[in-house]
Amino acid sequence: MKLHSLHTSKGQAGFSLVELTIVVVILGVLAMMAVPRYQTVVEQSKASEAFVYLDQIAKGQEMYNARTGEYASNLNKLDIKAPKPNHFSIGTPTSTNWQTKWEVKLTRTGASSGFGNYTVTYNERGFAPGRSSIPQKLRTK
User: Domain limits at 109?
Assistant: First the structure.
C-alpha cells in the first residue's frame, strides 16, 4: 500500500536563470555598499597609527622642553619608545624658534584604498588640521 509519493515534474529541479540573476544583483549591491566602508575602516586604522605616533612625539617634546627649555630639533633626542609607523614616512621636525615652536609631519606611503597620499601634522599644540591633508573621514581626533 502506497501512502504518499513525491511527484516532481521534469525541468523543475534547481533555480531558474531569473532567480540566479536576482541573487547576483542583490549580492552586487551589497558589495557596492560594503567595500567602500571596509576600505575606509581599514584606512582609518592605518591613520590612527600616525595619530598615536605623533601623540608620543608631542609628549616627548614636552618632556624635552621641560628639561632643556627648548624643543628637540631631532626626534632621536626624545626619550620615547614608540615604534615607527609602518604606513607613513616621518618628516624632519621644523621650527622658526625651537624655544616656543615645533612641527613634524607624517606622509602616507603606499596604496591607501583610494585616499591617495596624505599628511598628518602635529605641532606644540597637537594635531594641526590646517597643515594636514588627511581626509576628514579618516581623522580619529
Answer: 40-138
Residue 10 lies in a domain: no
- Please classify residue 71 by burial: count the beta carbons closer than 10 Å to its beta carbon, then call 0-12 exposed, 13-18 middle and 19+ buried: buried
Residues with Cβ within 8 Å of 83's Cβ and at least 6 positions away in sequence, in order, are 53
Q: Is residue 46 part of a domain?
A: yes
If one counts the domains in the chain, the total is 1
The verdict on residue 6 lying in a domain is no
**Residue 19: its H or E element:** helix 17-68
Q: What pLDDT is attached to residue 38?
A: 87
Q: Which residue has the cell 596604496?
A: 111
pLDDT-based confidence at residue 4 (cuts at 50, 70, 90): low
pLDDT-derived band at 2 (thresholds 50, 70, 90) equals low
The DSSP element (H or E) to which 26 belongs, if any, is helix 17-68
